[in-house]
Amino acid sequence: MSSVILDNKKTIKTLNNIAESGLKIFNKDNYTIDNESENPDAIAVRSFNMHDLEFGDNLKAIARAGAGVNNIPVDKCTERGIVVFNTPGANANAVKELVLTSLIASSRNLFEGTTWARTLKGKGDQISKHVETGKKQFVGKEIKGKTLGVIGLGAIGALVANDALNLDMDVIGFDPFISVDTAWNLSRTVHRAMTIEELFANSDYITVHVPLTDDTKGMFNEKTFSIMKNDVTILNFSRDGLVNESDMAAALESGKVGKFITDFPSEEVLNMKNVVPFPHLGASTKESEENCAVMASHQVKDFLETGNIKNAVNFPNASLPYTGNRRFTAFHKNVPNMVGQITSALSNYDLNIADMVNRSRGDYAYTMIDIDNKVNGDIIPSIEANITEIEGIIAVRLI
Ligand SMILES: NC(=O)c1ccc[n+]([C@@H]2O[C@H](COP(=O)([O-])OP(=O)(O)OC[C@H]3O[C@@H](n4cnc5c(N)ncnc54)[C@H](O)[C@@H]3O)[C@@H](O)[C@H]2O)c1
Ligand SMILES: O=C(O)CC[C@@H](O)C(=O)O
């Protein structure tokens, strides 16, 4: 990273515990970490629900130190030119390890077994006798030769699928939007289901690794349970909203679903039969928390200092080597002649363009323009105001 000296110190606010190794990337010369700030330049967050938060005028970026962004009002941010970053893959190994651990542990009834073993406390010499007679309640199943269905073959799903093959499972995957990078990393031995129904019908265990969206909400419901094998085990380390909880309770009651392992306990979940709840532990390892915090902080710092965007979920990636001269950046609607209007406005100030990049993503676009001249600080507000007046401009900055 460059050692840019910023005109004004920037304020970073954290809404959750963000690893120190990430926060220290915000050097004290340029940044203040102020968790009480009403108007920070950037926010770092994990699972805090931001949907009802008011945003100050200074807010330029939100960094989700993690994968899922359903706790962030992404559309509102886009409309205001606030970049939302996440940290793709940074916690995937942590989740994969917990998925495979709980897959084996639940098949061997380990959670129930240890709970029962603790009840023998105080039985002294009789403990080994109780153990040998009682253990038959916990006879489990081996996963070798069983079929694991993996829904969503992104960063986590692909790791789970590949490693389950190494545990001698048969693996079926389903992901209609699989990225080229993941497809390259996925073992060719993973069977690609053409429909989700094919996966549901053929799996002994089903693990889901998709974001919570309008399309995926409630994908586990009475109708989809009816397609599944009896006694199927379902693992949800993605989001609570993927599962219709009352339908799940009924499926567990009837034995259609044999076991439900979930990272998202609720009152209804905790009343279910044969449920194994975890307190959202998927990404909770030292390594994963550090990976996420470091990646998130680098992305925010780079954006604040140079305008470059990497791993945004609502704007295109854009990068231009930073020379240290003035850089103008604009978020705008993806409509014709925006670049022409911006460059013509800049030329009114006799500013010569050295380099530029324009990238679009759906209805929105981002333009960065490097200016040859040294810009007199006094005219910056006037330039920004003039360009902001162009119809379709959402937010501008002169860095
Ligand atoms: N429990 C935890 O602590 C924890 C940690 C990390 C991530 N997560 C959750 O897991 C999710 C996945 O994380 P990731 O890092 O693998 O994300 P990712 O973006 O790398 O992968 C998601 C995959 O889901 C696929 N997908 C989207 N819609 C789909 C659909 N309808 N059917 C099948 N596939 C679909 C995408 O194509 C993509 O390949 C996150 O969105 C988050 O909600 C939870
Ligand atoms: O921050 C966490 O602990 C959980 C993160 C996880 O849910 C994610 O979506 O990355």
How would you explain this protein's 3D organization?
This protein is of the alpha/beta class. The chain folds into 3 domains: about 1-90 and about 285-315, NAD(P)-binding Rossmann-like Domain (Rossmann fold, 3-Layer(aba) Sandwich), CATH 3.40.50; about 90-105 and about 140-275, Rossmann fold, CATH 3.40.50; about 320-399, 2-Layer Sandwich (Alpha-Beta Plaits). Helix content is about 30%, strand content about 20%. The chain has 14 helices and 16 strands. It has helices spanning about 20-25, 75-80, 90-105, 110-120, 125-135, 155-165, 180-185, 195-200, 220-225, 245-255, 265-270, 285-305, 340-345, 380-390; strands at about 10-15, 30-35, 40-45, 60-65, 85, 145-150, 170-175, 190, 205-210, 230-235, 255-260, 275, 325-335, 355-360, 365-370, 395-399. A 7-stranded parallel β-sheet has the order 8-7-6-9-10-11-12, sandwiched between helices. Strand 6 (about 145-150), helix 6 (about 155-165) and strand 7 form a beta-alpha-beta unit. Helix 3 packs across helix 6. The longest helix is centred in the last third of the chain and has 21 residues, at about 285-305. It is elongated, with a radius of gyration of 26 Å. The two termini are about 15 Å apart. The mean pLDDT is about 95. Bound molecules: nicotinamide-adenine-dinucleotide and (2R)-2-hydroxypentanedioic acid (2HG). (2R)-2-hydroxypentanedioic acid binds near residues 47 and 284. (2R)-2-hydroxypentanedioic acid binds near residues 47, 66 and 282.
